[in-house]
Amino acid sequence: MKITLEIQRFNPETDIKPYTQKYAVNAELTDRLLSVLLEIKATQDPTLGIRRSCAHGVCGSDAMVINGKERLACKTLIQDVAREEEATIRVEPLRNLPIQRDLMVDQHKFFENYMCVKPYFISSEEPGKKEFRQSPEERQKFEEGIKCILCISCYSACPVIQEVNPNFIGPAAVVQASRFNDDSRDEGFEERLPQLDHPDGVWPCESRFECTRVCPRGIKITKTINLTKRKIQRQKS
Amino acid sequence: MFEYEALIVGAGGAGLYAALEASKTGKTAVLSKLYPVRSHTGAAQGGIGAALGNLEEDKPIWHAFDTVKGGDYLTDQNAASILAEDAIQAVYELENKGLPFSRTPQGLIDQRRFGGHTRNFGEAPVRRACYAADRTGHMILQTLFQQCIKENVAFFDEYTVLDVLIQGHQCRGLVAGDLATGEIHLFKAKAVLFATGGFGRIFRITSNAYANTGDGQALLAKRGVPLEDMEFYQFHPTGIRGLGILITEAVRGEGGILRNAKGERFMERYAPTLLDLAPRDMISRAIHTEIQELRGVKGDGSVDDYIYLDATHLGKDAIEAKLPDIAEFSRTYLGVDPAEKPMSVHPTAHYAMGGIPTDLDGRVIFDSSGKTYEGLYAAGECACVSVHGANRLGTNSLVELVVFGRRAGQHMAQFVKGADFGTVSADAPEAVRKRLAELRRQEKCPNPESLRREMQHVMMENVGIIRNRENMAKAQKALRELRQVYTQIRANDPSRAFNTQVLEITELGHLLELAYMVVTCALNRQESRGAHAREDFAERDDNNWLKHTLAWFEGENIRIDYRNVDISRWEPKPRKY
Q: Using CB atoms within 10 A of its CB, is residue B41 exposed (0-12), middle (13-18) or buried (19+)?
């Protein structure tokens, strides 16, 4: 079928502000949107700026705003976002971060926020010649957080960052911190506390569920943030 | 100009592990053309093999033997023994760094069966693959990156290496381009490690990421470094029909069964003992035969025919607990819930057994006697130790990353303490700058994308699972012409900042070089061994071909020499499963 892609374009060397460019292409309903974008880049316009790598939803390179919602282009089939009679798809870069070029955004602030919560295993036990024991039930407690691929969808969709506090560390950072805080082997909660229990830490979250709605890994992000808030309150009382 | 004692190129499992070790003594930086957690290690699914024996008796010597036999005896046996022995400590270290392995009821690391991994030298499948659901690679990559954050390792994200500085037999540094600005930088170093991954993108159907373009192998080959055993390329039996996306062998490890159009469990005819858990080369050939003999699902013997991977009898709960991502891939890309219907799969280009030749500490070898460069290392899929021989066993890629990434990093850490930087001329990047300026010259030229598609088509049709002289000679000729056409390619995008077209054209050049080397080495080897299966030389020929290939670019041509295989532990035997 024939479809039209409306892609937001911006080249810092030639453009003052972003604009929309339309491309007509042939595609199947079962094609990945990423394949269609790359087809445009290959055959119509090699200047289109886009990040991609694994093309099946595990590397997190190609998150973008598709018809107004954050999605991975490689995990989005044409049939998910278009119909025969409504075959226009709008593609924009992620929000809440500066645009570098076309669909590429500057990810530094996102990764800084992520790194500030000490998203690594902290334990006083010396590494040894055996595994630390952990029951399947204890392991299950942080199953949600380990699915995160740092694709930035949640950060882009967060209305709090957009409207209230641009310095909120964002949903992914809290999820990554909780992945360790909820790990029975980890002892780093107190070290992570200053960043989490902070005006820009977990507290700006208003439970508006946009992050949960867009997460391509199906992580219950809002719930994770609320559980972290409760954990902090318990710790303080 | 930047100056680091140790430079790591590539931020996948091998690169990050090496960086952690090297940074213990030396000023270390990691250069990657991707953001770190985007590397393709993250796509590895099923497990990492280590003879922990958590569920049943297992021994490193069994793991080593399986690796040697799986590699059709082209595996270096001392290297396989180190792989199997070090794997145990490496898995404990990963766990101790926080890796969330799936667990047994007793709280130990859970283990599952995988192809070619057996008890007591081939008796029956053994539970050796340690795993984190079907996200084992993702968790290894995350865990290692987390540790790099903890240890303050420096990263240059989206830096593409464009040249390597080798003087005599010493490596002095790199030239790299910054995607954000288009600027070219000189990096001086005492030691450089390449961990740039594979090059599955030479084929049309592949499980590999777009980024897997063999940059390290191609750059070093251009600088006179030989490549080893490039004719051995593995097709994984189960890629999603039409797309090639990997469906892990762990589906079969958990009990999944391959069936043809008639519903027959056809592996009974090809590997009566291990069945669906035979090594990958054998299963891919079996699928190829089934399709050729019109027992594929379409039944027309065409290149896009396929067979079924049946996991319906495993039950929804087991699939969601142990193979959640597979279930999601199947729903997303096939529209099929694997608990209800079988998945449509066919073989997909997956893994290069060959690559940059190294010794057991990751040092790059430059001749057939095994002499090594100073300050030049390689690890992971881009390297050839060789632990995989003619065919890699499932899980052993992750084992190799951590075992040899770690060993190489430890060696670098020692080496840089006693080494100096040497002198590098500040205009070392000039050749690269000139080449890129030429590439950006706006003139009419062939479309790089047509070239890429032609290469991928030629390789898929002629240098795939089953090979013969006639087809390979055709492919070699076609690739020679494509390499000529490539010299006329120009970038239409004149921008400096975020010019992804220039990057893609550079990558295409690397792929063309490697494709040419693969077909040339494959034509040269007149036998069938592991993943290299020839119709015109159907048998393994130990008398003439029990040796590693070493291949050098000499101008437009390729020179071939050989290296001995270490067979100090087990006598080569016919391979039956």
A: buried
CA Rg value for chain A: 20
Cβ contact A47–B39 (<8 Å) = no
| The pLDDT value given to residue A84 | 84
Q: What is the DSSP string of A159-194?
A: HHHHHT-TT---HHHHHHHHHHHT-TT---HHHHHH
Compute the count of residue pairs across chains A and B with CB atoms less than 8 Å apart. Answer: 147
Mark yes or no for CB contact A129/B92 under 8 Å: yes
Integer Cα distance of B200 and B510 in angstroms: 12
The whole-number pLDDT of residue B37 equals: 94
* Percent of chain B clearing pLDDT 70 (strictly above): 100
Q: Which position has the token pair 């087990």?
A: B570
What is the model's pTM?
A: 0.97
* pLDDT of residue A126 exceeding 90: no
Q: What is the structure's pLDDT at A128?
A: 84
Do the chains contact at A149 and B37, CB–CB below 8 Å?
yes
Q: What does the angle CA B194 – CA B197 – CA B201 come to, to the nearest 5 degrees?
A: 135
Task: Please write the tens of the pLDDT for every residue from B183-215.
Answer: 999 999 999 999 999 999 999 999 999 999 999
Mean pLDDT of chain B: 97
Residue of B nearest to A132 (CA): B96
- The answer to whether the Cα torsion of B149, B153, B156, B161 is positive or negative is negative
Given this model, what pLDDT does residue B307 score?
98
Our CA-based measurement puts residue A141 at a distance from the nearest CA of chain B, in whole angstroms, of 11
Of B188, B224, B245, nearest to B6 by C-alpha is B188
Interface test with A, best of B104, B140, B210 (most A CBs within 10 A): B210
- Which amino acid appears at position A95 of this protein? R
Using a CB-CB cut-off of 8 Å, the residues of chain B touching A149 are 37, 42, 138
Residue B302: other Cβ atoms inside 10 A? 10
Say yes or no: ipTM exceeds 0.90.
Answer: yes
Give the three-state DSSP class for B330. helix
Catalytic residues of B: 280
Angle B52-B139-B17 from CA coordinates, rounded to 5°: 80
pLDDT at A62: 98
Give one DSSP letter per residue of B252-289, joined into a string: HHTT-EEE-TT---THHHH-TTTGGGS-HHHHHHHHHH
In chain A, what residues touch B100 (CB-CB under 8 Å)? 139, 142, 146, 183
The CA-based diameter of chain A, rounded to the nearest angstrom, is: 63
User: Among residues of chain A, what percentage have pLDDT more than 90?
Assistant: 95
Subunit contact A12:B146, Cβ cutoff 8 A: no
Please give the structure tokens belonging to residue B200. Answer: 């599955």
Q: What angle do CA A116, A172, A119 make, to 5 degrees?
A: 40
Helix, strand or coil for residue A133?
coil
- In tens, the pLDDT along B97-155 reads 999 999 999 999 999 999 999 999 999 999 999 999 999 999 999 999 999 999 999 99
DSSP string, B60-89: HHHHHHHHHHHTTT-S-HHHHHHHHHHHHH
Please tell me the distance from the alpha carbon of residue A130 to that of residue B233, in angstroms, as a whole number: 35
Residue A236 has a CB neighbour count (10 Å cut-off) of: 8
Q: Which CA distances in Å does A39 have to A46, A50, B172, B193?
A: 10, 12, 40, 34
Q: Which residues contact B554 (CB under 8 A, 6 or more apart)?
A: none
> Is the predicted pLDDT of residue B43 greater than 90, yes or no?
yes
What are B436-488's pLDDT values in tens digits? Answer: 999 988 888 999 999 999 999 999 999 999 999 999 999 999 999 999 999 99
Determine whether the interchain pair A128/B92 forms a contact, defined as Cβ–Cβ distance below 8 Å: yes
Residue from B164, B179, B484, B570 nearest B356 by CA: B164
CA distances to A152, A207, B66, B142 from B38, rounded to whole Å, are 12, 29, 31, 10
